[in-house]
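User: I'm preparing a small set of examples for a lab meeting where we compare how different chains pack in three dimensions. I only have the primary sequence for this one, and I'd like the structure in token form so I can line it up with the others. Please keep the answer compact; I'll paste it straight into my notes.
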Amino acid sequence: DLLGAVEPLLPSLREDGVAVWVLGAGPVPPGVLALQELLDAASEELEPEDVWEPGDMNDTCLYIFTSGTTGLPKAARVSHLKAVMCLSFYELVGASSRDVVYLALPLYHMAGSLLGIVGCLGIGATCVLKEKFSASQFWDDCRAEGVTVFQYIGELCRYLVNQPQRPGERQHGLRLAVGSGLRPDVWRSFQQRFGPVRIVETYGMSEGNVTLFNYIG
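Assistant: Understood. Below is the structure token output for the 217-residue chain.
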């Protein structure tokens, strides 16, 4: 979907030795690697461990966008060790395999992909992946999908609080909301309006090595 934005830069990227990979249906311009064709041709047999197992857990696993709070968004290095540690995220905040997690955060940021998707894999929970957050549809989605855990960025909760009141706002199974950047006034309004949802506020940085959890609320 984003190839059109990159295409004018392809000549300069090639000059700098930057490889461009595209996932999705072709055709793709010359010099661009079409991943879908390789995936379709790949064997389903798992390669021996020495092929895919990292030699050092501190080696780079992937690069991921920061949110830009300290400047323009940039690619941050994430090690294999940090990616594996994200498997424990939901366990740390009190979720389990019985939970259904609602995720509407962008997957090119750490919160959505590593904490959200990888976190669900870590505990074996069901993930309801929403392409785009909708404050007006949120509680209907929660009821329809049996959602018990919501991963937020603080503004999402503010959007919900700012919605016109509607019947049945407290008729849901949501028990836990976990995320970052929730203002105290929105926190109080959220719980007063939507019921005794436990909120665990966390703070970390894609390129940092310390994470904080507000367990006591």
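A couple of notes for your slides: Residues 110-123 form the longest helix (14 residues). The chain has ten helices and ten strands.

User: Perfect, thanks.
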